[in-house]
Design a protein that fits this description.
The protein is mostly helical. Among the domains are: 4-72, Orthogonal Bundle (Arc Repressor Mutant, subunit A); 92-128, no CATH class. The chain is built from 6 helices and 3 strands. It has helices spanning 11-23, 28-39, 43-55, 76-89, 96-106, 111-125, and strands at 26-27, 59-62, 69-72. A 3-stranded antiparallel β-sheet has the order 1-3-2. A hairpin with a 6-residue loop joins strand 2 (59-62) and strand 3. Helix 1 (11-23) packs across helix 3. It is elongated, with a radius of gyration of 20 Å. It holds the Pfam family Penicillinase_R.
Length: 152
């Protein structure tokens, strides 16, 4: 699989990728029919998005003749991690902990997921600073990022 760090997937392309990741390999007809059923998309919308994903090297075409099949080049887990890291890279570092808390509270997690998160957090706690520095502006004076007492 290719490095997902170099592939940026749009919201609509994510819908295509979810189908391809789930089925592992899909014909163009299966993909068109699925996207029409789940999203109400026209054939041309699905074909356009699929073409973009091929150009981005997220998906590869299998076969020289119709019916073509398609399979993912990037993995789902790496793509999700890259998208999440990109999102957190664009927000204030001082808000990351609270945002992670909100994300965790909004998701259903398995017992094994929670156990893994606890292990990661316990290890991270050993080297964590008392407070994370703001990364919004280069000068270091960041009153805008002070954590509200309501957020603590």
């Amino acid at each position: 699989m290719i490095d997902a760090e170099n592939v940026t997937i749009s919201d609509s392309e994510w819908e295509i990728m979810r189908v391809i990741w789930t089925l592992h390999q899909v014909t163009s007809r299966q993909l068109i029919d699925t996207m029409h059923e789940t999203q109400g998309w026209s054939d041309s919308t699905t074909k356009t998005l699929l073409s973009r994903l091929i150009k981005k090297a997220a998906v590869r075409q299998i076969g020289e003749h119709r019916p073509f099949s398609f399979e993912p080049i990037v993995t789902e887990q790496e793509s999700m991690a890259t998208a999440a890291i990109d999102l957190f890279d664009r927000m204030c570092a001082m808000r990351a902990g609270k945002t992670l808390e909100q994300v965790i509270n909004s998701r259903e997690l398995s017992q094994s997921d929670i156990k893994q998160l606890l292990q990661v957090l316990t290890a991270k706690q050993e080297t964590a600073p008392e407070m994370v520095e703001c990364n919004c502006l280069p000068d270091g004076d960041h009153d805008c990022c002070e954590v509200d007492s309501n957020e603590k």
